[in-house]
Amino acid sequence: MSYVAQRREIDALTDIKLNGRIQMMPTFFYDYEEGDLRRDISAKPYYFKDGAATMCTDASTFYLSKWRAEWMTRRVLSKDDGVNFMVLRLADVYLMNAEANIELGNLAEARTRIIDVRRRAFADASAAEAPVNAAASAEELTTLLRTERAKEFVGEGIRRWDLMRWGILKETLDQVDLDLDMLRRREGRYADVRDVIYYKDNGEGGFDIYGFNRDEDDAPAGYKTKTKWIRYASKSSESSSFENFIGKVQFDANGNATDELVGSVYYHLDGLDTHIRQVMPIMNVILASCQNALTNAYGY
Questions:
Q1: Where are the beta strands (DSSP E) in the chain?
Q2: How far apart, in whole angstroms, are the C-alpha atoms of residue 218 and residue 205?
């Protein structure tokens, strides 16, 4: 019940409250290409309270929304979240095939399989194909494939294992720290991210949102305005939930923001291998009920 948009009360669609604790990083949301339909299917910045959708305060909260209750064909119960168990993902088969072909040097075949996945995600076929065809080397195609797996399977519980088997878990999480700080300051590739978004009731229990694409400057008539969507404090007295989310801005003696990074995206201790540390321990409640049949063996 953590992999959905938050529903703070039991309502017409559910017999339980949905806590929505597993969320998408805001940087990841803004890294989707414009026109990629998976972005707005996979995440949304609003929750449900008193039976109505409510916009989140700012960009710190993007709830996963692939398995939203309003799309379910049966009522969400305490022991039935409405989602059928996924045995096999065809997109995973295609992208595994592409990865193997890259390793074998069959780049043309790898491009075909990646494009097969992307064509479903883009209404414009040329937008789906262009970045793949532009990847000239195995290294470039590998980078693109790894990004594609992240976007296709976000929230499905396989990203960490992908990063571990590629041996890039720590460097990827370190980059998230850098990216979050960049987004907070609206610099680099996030320089043109808008600090104002617009929204209106879509008549289906949610919102139509305008302003997430970089060229969406002025909303059509009928939209409400939410300012300070991405807030960056220029003085120590200013703050926002977005800044609290990634760590408060540090200030020098003159009140200028410093370049100190967050360093808190993942759990780590000095001297320990981050790759090992990121294998989640078995929870105590499970250990206590297994009659000593299980133990943690990862240094916890």
A1: 43-44, 46-49, 52-55, 63-64, 197-201, 207-210, 224-226
A2: 24
CA 251 remoteness from chain centre: 29
Residue 149 CB partners (closer than 8 Å, separation 6+):
95, 158, 159, 162
pLDDT tens string 188-207: 999 999 989 999 998 888 89
Q: What is the mean pLDDT of residues 199-223?
A: 90
Question: Could you give all domains of the chain from N- to C-terminal order, each with its CATH number?
Answer: 1-84+201-229 (no CATH), 90-180 (1.25.40.900), 267-300 (no CATH)
* Tally of CB atoms within 10 A around 48: 26
CB 207 within 8 A of CB 199: yes
Question: First-to-last CA distance in the chain?
Answer: 27
Distance, CA of 198 to CA of 216 (rounded, Å): 10
The token duo for 267 is 């759990």
DSSP string covering 37-61, please? THHHHHEESEEEETTEEEE-SSTT-
Range from 122-131, 139-148, 239-248 carrying the lowest mean pLDDT: 239-248
Angstrom distance (rounded) from CA 1 to CA 121 = 26
Distance CA 47, CA 96 (A): 34
Give the least confident one: 48-62, 180-194, 267-281.
267-281
Q: How many residues would you count in the chain? A: 300
With beta carbons less than 8 A apart as the criterion, state whether 215 and 33 touch. no
